[in-house]
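Notebook entry, structure prediction.
Reason for the run: the old model in the group folder had no record of what sequence produced it. Starting over properly, with the input documented here first.
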Amino acid sequence: GSFSAVVFRRESPQFTNPDGLWDQSAALYPRLGARPRISAMEWRFPSGMRVRFAHMEYNKDKYNWDGSQIPLIGFDQLESFLESQFWYMLSINRSLCGVRPYIRATCNPVPEDDETGGWLNRLIQWWIDPEGGLPIRERGGKLRWFVRAGDELVWGDDPISLAAAHPDTIPKSLTFIPGTLEDNQILMRGNPGYKANLLALPLIERERLLGGNWNVRPEAGKVFNRTWFEIVDA
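New structure, fully documented this time:
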């Protein structure tokens, strides 16, 4: 079969927002000969390859993909998806097209106790400094391997020893690559004022979206700190 890819966002309007993923794809894919099927939010290439954009707003939406075979699954802002949605989609990440199936995802930091994305924080904890909440740079991009034993993930530094310790499983690899605004030089050149926009955000959002902090959360003294205000007579 031919190669295909599906990129998920939690809600469909996020694709069609100005300069969103659909607009970005429209600036690139036609140069490669692709033709759009706007009603299906899909591009078809001369080779037969297809790239589709789809949403998964409700947890039950994951079952709409039963029986599919998708070699590449993408999640845009993975922290907005439920843990059950992410793991279920591994069941359709398969293919007979000759390309090894794989998953790619982008994300923004969320604290461990976030109701929706806290699972992602826990999943990548090895790459994050537990004290400061920032990515550990020397671990960025380093592969780790895991198997699921019961309902728990067991981690290892190499697949051979992990498979030997858990012979009835097949290890899968995972890595986390941290990024900052400074890494996006194209955006910095094209929109030099964007950093000022991030610097103008309230503390919590600024630490997450500009600083890349996975631990910061709303709490006393961070939303409003009394030392920020001068006390004056009424």
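Summary: The first helix runs from residue 13 to 16.
The old model has been moved to the deprecated folder.
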